[in-house]
């Protein structure tokens, strides 16, 4: 998104995007925000991510070995849990935008998160991992007690609630530290989202290498306590940065504002909206919007029916109090806020199939890996630790994209960002589709190397054959999820920034639920009296490769729909300080 053009001579020493210091005064640029605060938030996010993946990356193995669930049940349990994590992001975004603000929302949900981790660690220590050290490839755990299972689900869903509610707010709070009306800070704001995703992967690196190794060896309790310590340290660091953050006021209930536009438009369904946006109702001056911490949005020509909500009729002229009643007459800014949300939804829906692809990394990729040769020489490699190649791929491609692809594409396209957010997301869809094809080919080769005389034994194919599919998923994330964060945060109006960030998380959530549905449907349709199905308990007798190829085919269809939606989309237009600035997005 191209920043607004601002004459360097007019750059103010205080922020002009509506941000404030902790006392409610306009934020002074030299004393608040920028990279000093953002780096602290990136470290906080990295530690929270380390704690999250310390629990989540090997949870499918914990469910099988400690809670005694089978492959399909464990995969679906993981998808439900991961989906719940990200669906809770909508709750966090709503509270952040409407009532609490970004800072308080982050603090409250981090406290819930830490509490959940403490309960999980205690429940595993005293009730679940019995005998001590069980849950490795050799030692069976005792059947879990009812109290232990209850505390397990209570704690894991508290972790889901805390982490889900925290994520969209921390992403938005971090980007809030840069004033996009300042050219230098606007460039830093764009870069922030790449570093934000980098922090996610650096934070998970320790969990995916060190913690996953000890947990796979039965040291579950130690792994969970390390995660608890990381989350606690993250909360302390977050609170230490309080004096220097930039803050935005919450803008009130989003659902009410949407309802007002829909009701006002329906009341005037017979009215003809004027063709010129200047004739629609809008507040004079910027003061009212500045006090609310938002900027005016200029009129757009899409979804014209909603313009009826800002149309002033003869009845409204006869009854001037109607102009002060948003249930009868809304401002152009309020109408355009609703338009922006509705225009983003088709793009968002197209990202769900990609999230189905992405979620396989935490479930079926791991289960596939456990049925391969996990030994490299005398060293045993836990299947879940293969996700380190996803992380390394993300780290590498973020550097490659920013240092190589952006300069090259900027010269070719004339866009200083190289590729627009929508173009990057399209590239991510293509690479994700390729990852499923590669995973399917690997599964075909794995099945060929299962000993015919011992069908229950792992394949002789090395676990390292999974490296390409993990690396491709990592590359696709750089294009898809970083592009999503930039797109939804940048295109969301000022009053719903956290909601914009939450759309990325909600996409992952629905992707997990769609994955559950697909796994269940495939299992039901392909399994019979004499048929084990595509995803049986023993993958050696199934055809997981066909499920991967099915996901590749769905991705191809999704790509076609996505391109059509992206070509239709037009970006938000902002009116900032009397200077019209367009946030443009093209394909």
Can you describe this structure in just a few lines?
With 587 residues, this protein is an all-alpha fold.
Task: Give a structural overview.
This protein is an all-alpha fold. The chain has 18 helices and 5 strands. Helix 6 runs antiparallel to helix 7 (220-240), helix 15 (421-448) packs antiparallel against helix 16 (467-491) and helix 16 (467-491) runs antiparallel to helix 17. It starts with 33 loop residues before the first helix and ends in a 5-residue tail after the last strand. 54% of the residues are buried.
Give keywords:
587 residues; mainly alpha; 2% strand; disordered N terminus; disordered C terminus
Q: Largest sheet at a glance?
A: 3 strands, antiparallel
Strand order of the largest sheet: 1-4-5
Q: Uncertain regions: pLDDT < 50 for 5+ in a row? A: 1-9, 578-587
> What count of helical segments does DSSP give?
18
The total strand number stands at: 5
Our Rg estimate from Cα atoms comes to 25 Å
Mean pLDDT: 86
Helix/strand-derived category reads: mainly alpha
Into which percent range does the helicity of residues fall?
55-70%
List the topology elements.
Elements: H1 34-56, H2 59-65, H3 71-100, H4 102-128, H5 146-176, H6 183-216, H7 220-240, H8 254-267, H9 287-292, E1 296-297, H10 314-318, H11 332-350, H12 352-359, H13 364-370, E2 375-376, E3 379-380, H14 387-413, H15 421-448, H16 467-491, H17 497-526, H18 544-568, E4 573-576, E5 579-582
